[in-house]
Amino acid sequence: MENELIAWLRERLPAHPRLRVGPGDDAAVLRLARHDDCVMTVDLLTDHVDFELAEVDPRRVGRKALAVNLSDLAAMAARPLAAVIAVALPRTGGMALAKALCEGMIPLAEEYDLAIAGGDTNSWDGPLAISITLLGQTTPQGPLLRSGARPGDRIVVTGSFGGSILRHQFDFDPRVEEALAIHQRYGLHAGIDVSDGLSIDLARLCRESRCGAVLDASTIPIADDARRLAEELADGSTPLDHALGDGEDFELILAVPPDEAERMLAERPVEVPLSVVGRFTEEPGLWIVDATGRHELTPSGWEHEFE
Amino acid sequence: MENELIAWLRERLPAHPRLRVGPGDDAAVLRLARHDDCVMTVDLLTDHVDFELAEVDPRRVGRKALAVNLSDLAAMAARPLAAVIAVALPRTGGMALAKALCEGMIPLAEEYDLAIAGGDTNSWDGPLAISITLLGQTTPQGPLLRSGARPGDRIVVTGSFGGSILRHQFDFDPRVEEALAIHQRYGLHAGIDVSDGLSIDLARLCRESRCGAVLDASTIPIADDARRLAEELADGSTPLDHALGDGEDFELILAVPPDEAERMLAERPVEVPLSVVGRFTEEPGLWIVDATGRHELTPSGWEHEFE
Asked: How many helices (H) and strands (E) in chain B?
């Protein structure tokens, strides 16, 4: 069956100049001359955790699986080069599912000039699992790490936050072009993408940078869907709670020196809105300032729990 | 929990000069200067298909997951550079399992000078799934593809075949050094590793090379475990049947010009036994010659079945 799928995929995939050998051999062969440093990242998505296959078009699942990986490249300010895709497919309907997943990925790969280089197709009695590995190319400014934020740096975010479960988790645009444009034009110190939650991913960036952060509640861009979700749930949660902890926003958190942040907001170098939502501090920890004062903020968001 | 695992892994992993940034950021950063062409391969292994977690030390599972990927690099005659690892872990016992898998991988990674660059840890209610992606470096002779075999080329194999289920499937040594040494010294035309079965993987190489092959039954190196398995099963299967169709031998099938094959067998360039087991033919198809004559051979081996 794998042969049939490879044959189908070979027909569907556009030729890519970066691929000397594409899907179908023991490995793909990539032309990587002049790419001194590469970044490599993998994300695995599973049914019932990252999506509910019974409730969503599998093409959207395929798109999402690739998009979350592209978001990791964005967080490194790296240009997408190549992808390999591994799937564990349920036995029944596996072929149609595999094709639908690919159909969801291919337009996104083309949009980001990403070479789909190969993969591995498996069947089993378990639920769908998809693992995508991306190779990317850093800019001359080097990779954008989590570890470079300095006290005084402004916290700049792209887009808005919260309520992604309503729609955004499948339809988001990874901030690849934005990250490349901003990193090349401004002296960014650090960056991370928000996959698990604004507050938890900010805390991760702080930990790697050995600093803390203060958020200004009034400046946090709250998505319309965060308001909608708070209203629908009617469980006492506020739109701000959703913005801080929902996750799957796949926006960027950037550490930017104050003068560069000011310049960036004045120049509006990208279409996506940019907001200063706080600053990094010497003292480790996370705080939020609202109308009632300054409060310690417990990072909230998605974490894979296991014992 | 993922933080704890990353911290543990960072302590356990030796520093590697190829890693500018290792596990813990949004992606790993690899130093790849002077690596013009790279190969990239992924393999996903799942519980109940590639191993039975209840019956085997998870360190052996971890080792196997990495070794099957190294075998793909061997099949390309590529030197291992870097790996990223994604796991979907059962919720209970996931942490201990993740650590044991890593403990099984790390010695093998060190043996092959492979940088473990990063990964993604997930938990779910499904069984264990491990996906490893490797990046490799081709030799100045270029990658060893499946597509270069020519009629008249000898079929050369490393090692012996069959009965891998008894032991070899976990303990095999991927033929990385052998492939590099042989590819640099002899004019190899094509190669593949035997993951699914000698006959089925030979058929795959033939298909990509648009040729056929004739095997000489008397020259096929049969593993002791193939004989033992045939005896234990007592189901009418012969040791040769097991050698042709068992799979997970992770030996190499090479297409070698006749004079180079002769030279190779005389010179014995590697410790692993090399055998000429037949030749490639213009006519597509697979045949085997034994004491009773020449017979068409139906490729047998492991295939992921899905509909």
From this structure: 9, 13
Tell if the CB–CB gap between B122 and A89 is shorter than 8 Å.
Answer: no
- Give me the pLDDT at residue A1, please: 52
B162 contact partners, CB below 8 Å, separation of at least 6: B222, B223, B225, B226, B229, B239, B240, B241, B242, B243, B244, B246, B249
CA B295/CA A258 separation, integer angstroms? 78
How large is the average pLDDT for residues A46-56? 95
| Average pLDDT of chain A to the nearest whole number | 91
Q: Establish if B181 touches chain A: CB-CB under 8 angstroms.
A: no
Searching chain B, which residue's CA lies closest to the CA of residue A99? B307
Q: Which residues of A touch B26 (CB under 8 A)?
A: 41, 72-73, 75-76, 146, 191-193
As a whole number of angstroms, the distance between CA A166 and CA B269 comes to: 62
- Across the interface, whether the CB atoms of B131 and A86 are under 8 A apart is answered yes
Q: Which helix (H) or strand (E) holds A68?
A: helix A58-75
Q: Is B49 on the interface with A (CB under 8 A)?
A: yes
Q: Is the complex ipTM higher than 0.85?
A: yes
B243 phi, psi to nearest 5 deg: -65, -35
Mean pLDDT, each 10-residue run in order, chain B (307 residues): 70 74 76 74 94 96 97 94 92 90 93 90 93 91 92 98 94 96 94 96 95 98 97 95 96 98 96 98 97 94 71
Asked if B177 reaches chain A (Cβ–Cβ under 8 Å), the answer is: no
Chain B environment of A118 (Cβ under 8 Å): 40-42
What's the confidence (pLDDT) of residue A2?
Answer: 64
Question: Could you report the per-residue pLDDT of A187-233, keeping only the tens digit for each?
Answer: 899 999 999 999 999 999 999 999 999 999 999 999 999 999 999 99
C-beta atoms of A26 and B38 within 8 A: no
Contact assessment for residue B82 and residue A40, using Cβ atoms and an 8 Å cutoff: yes
pLDDT band at A303 (very low <50, low <70, confident <90, very high): confident
Give the gap in angstroms from C-alpha B38 to the nearest C-alpha of chain A. 5
Please, what are the domains in chain A?
A: 2-138 (3.30.1330.10), 154-296 (3.90.650.10)
Cβ–Cβ < 8 Å for B137, B78: yes
Candidate from A35, A37, A124 with C-beta closest to B46: A124
Instruction: Name the 3-class secondary structure at B116.
Output: strand
How close does chain B come to A266, measured CA to CA in Å?
Answer: 28
Short-list B190, B174, B177, CA closest to B132:
B174
Contacts of A48 in chain B (CB under 8 A): 124-126
